[in-house]
């Protein structure tokens, strides 16, 4: 069974989550965004595992997602599409939302159901959306992987060719998921980051950082870092 996003059942990964978080931020800051330098609003796909054990995770994400909009308001805004899978073969994508209230209302209608992971369908949707209109980033939040690793890595590589980075947030310590998620991040030009029950505030900051990146690119992320917690600001200074 999958563990809840923030239910305290996991332990901090070997080496400490802090170092992984810092490495994640460094990777985000170093990722060259596509399509910036135009008046176009950023587009970010926000995908979540909505299988049975993740109802608490989903409820907490209702609060976290608002930060993604708030932190990008001064950059011209951000459009976010919600994607999720659950139950027996159910995988859905919402319309594109331009404000936190609309996205929150859509998430309130979703109840998590037991089922296997469908990450491949999330990636297929990301490829279709990007070919129709550029997407600046894809975020995935989950804890396991029950699919063909080679197929997922191939799709991640296709997103990389389209310059769409995957930012994967992994709860728990599923070794197979860790291995595949890391490869997917590398192949897409994105980043992977673990988190646990003690990482709720950091997760909120990391999601906000990816949103800022999607809306305004590396320079905007550096500016955002200067107004964030001291450790993030200091990290961004070192990256420069």
List the helices and strands in order: HEHEEHHEHEHEHH
Radius of gyration: 16 Å
CATH-defined architecture = 3-Layer(aba) Sandwich
Uncertain segments: 1-16, 34-39, 230-240
Our estimate of the beta-strand percent is 15-25%
Biggest pleated sheet = 6 strands, mixed
Shape label: globular
pLDDT averaged over residues: 79
Helix percent reads 40-55%
User: What is the level 1 CATH name?
Assistant: Alpha Beta
Give the termini distance in whole angstroms.
42 Å
| CATH fold node name | Rossmann fold
Structural class by sheet pairing and helices: alpha/beta
Total helices: the number is 8
Short account of what is shown:
This protein is α/β, with parallel strands linked by helices. It has helices spanning 17-30, 55-70, 100-108, 119-132, 149-161, 175-188, 200-226, 230-239, and strands at residues 42-49, 78-86, 90-97, 137-142, 166-171, 191-195. The protein is built from eight helices and six strands; from the N terminus they run αβαββααβαβαβαα.
Give the helices and strands, then pairings:
Elements: H1 17-30, E1 42-49, H2 55-70, E2 78-86, E3 90-97, H3 100-108, H4 119-132, E4 137-142, H5 149-161, E5 166-171, H6 175-188, E6 191-195, H7 200-226, H8 230-239
Parallel strand pairs: 1-2, 1-4, 4-5, 5-6
Antiparallel strand pairs: 2-3
Helix pairs in contact: 1-7, 1-8, 2-3, 2-7, 4-5, 5-6, 7-8
